[in-house]
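[job 4471] stage=fold_predict status=RUNNING
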Amino acid sequence: MKIRYIILAALCLTLSGCGSKSPDLNPEDVLKSFHSTLAAGDFEGAEKLCKPSMHGYINDYKDVLEKQRAMNKGAADIATEALSKAEVIISDIEKEKDLRMISYTIEDGYGNRKDKTAVMKEVEGEWKVKEIKDRQ
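[job 4471] inference complete, writing structure tokens
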């Protein structure tokens, strides 16, 4: 039960990307890379894939993970493993000038799902995560 809570808490904050630059990646690829980088604990890599407005989101994710590790390292490790295998499933993309609004679902393979919307912004030829919100 505790492991499921940890997984759900991490899903609520985020999930799911990798790499430091995104010149040849489309917005969907950058979003997926952001989530996989974050799940892998590469917080610096995740920051490179987003606008500064997302740094608080990354710090919140990091704080939850660190608190869970302090309380129960084994459970936190299991949750991290589950999150690293999470799948980002894109359901819709809306285009507006240099923005893309991407509706997607994160599934962790254990029956946990979280519906989210990401706002992506093109900055100097690279797509960046500008905002992520939970969907109802």
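[job 4471] summary: The CA atoms of residues 99 and 121 lie 5 Å apart.
[job 4471] exit 0
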